[in-house]
Amino acid sequence: MKDNIQDLVKYVTSTGFFEKIKVVATDKKVILEAMEKEKDIILKGSFAKPIAGLEGEFGLSNLSLLGHISSDPQFNAPESNIEFKYDEKDGVKNPVEMRYVNKSKSYINYRFMSIKLVPAQPKFAEPVWDIVIRPSSSDVKQFAWAANGLGVYEQYFIPRVQNGELKFFIGEEDAAAQRGAVTFATGIDAKFENRNKWRIKHIQPILAMAEGADCEMSFSIKGVIQIAINTGVGEYKFLFPAKAA
């Protein structure tokens, strides 16, 4: 469970995009779902293995406290333990609390949210992706470099394929304004004359965070970008619906 918490904090809650996370845990799998308050980012995730002692449906809120618990210098000590408290209502048992006690016997009780208070999560029928790439560290850094300079003037970017290169255009290509482009991937054998646009401040931080993990980025001409991060502990699919250009 400690690995799961640390992984979730590092790759999901630390982004600051989500206020509440829906959790469905069984003896076979743990499913995670969340949605950014403006519905610009959707999370569909899961852990690689079930969590012993955790079954039921509940929500995570007060996510900064979850991060604080995992920041305890004694968190990974073998003597530090996590256990769950359950309540039963109408014949259904669901977890309501996580109790963390470290080796010094200091503790924090973290309350779960009732599943009834978790916002309904959107269903997502995964499209046939037009482009699927594995971003390199250098490409991600180039995007960050361009975004840090041009993001003051333009909050969106537009991905397009030109001459086998996937380019991220920041600002309109022929506009009389500050603008630029990043060659994000080469050897692309697909047509992608896209007119949709995406917020830089949503995509760029997720790409930067993914460095060192197994990361795959997918594009649909229908107006969706997906960044899938597989850490070995969890898989997190961040979905970004487009804004019309």
What would your notes on this structure say?
The chain has 4 helices and 16 strands. Helix 1 (2-11) packs across helix 2. An 8-stranded antiparallel sheet has the order 4-1-2-3-15-14-13-8, covered by helices on one side. With 245 residues, the chain is of the alpha+beta class. Strand 13 and strand 14 (224-230) form a beta hairpin. The protein folds into 2 domains: 2-117, DNA Polymerase III, subunit A, domain 2 (DNA Polymerase III, Chain A, domain 2, Roll); 131-244, DNA Polymerase III, subunit A, domain 2 (DNA Polymerase III, Chain A, domain 2, Roll), CATH 3.10.150.
The number of E-state strands comes to 16
| Structural class designation | alpha+beta
Q: Give the rounded overall mean pLDDT.
A: 92
- Mind describing the biggest β-sheet? 8 strands, antiparallel
Strand content: 35-45%
- So, the CATH homologous superfamily of the largest domain? DNA Polymerase III, subunit A, domain 2
Query: Secondary-structure element order, as H and E?
Result: HEEEEHEEEEHEEEEHEEEE
**Class of the largest domain in CATH?**
Alpha Beta
What oligomeric arrangement do these chains adopt?
Answer: single chain
In short:
With 245 residues, this protein is of the alpha+beta class. It has helices at residues 2-11, 63-70, 137-150, 200-209; strands at residues 21-25, 30-35, 42-47, 56-60, 81-89, 92-101, 107-111, 131-133, 156-162, 165-170, 180-186, 196-199, 214-220, 224-230, 234-241, 243-244.
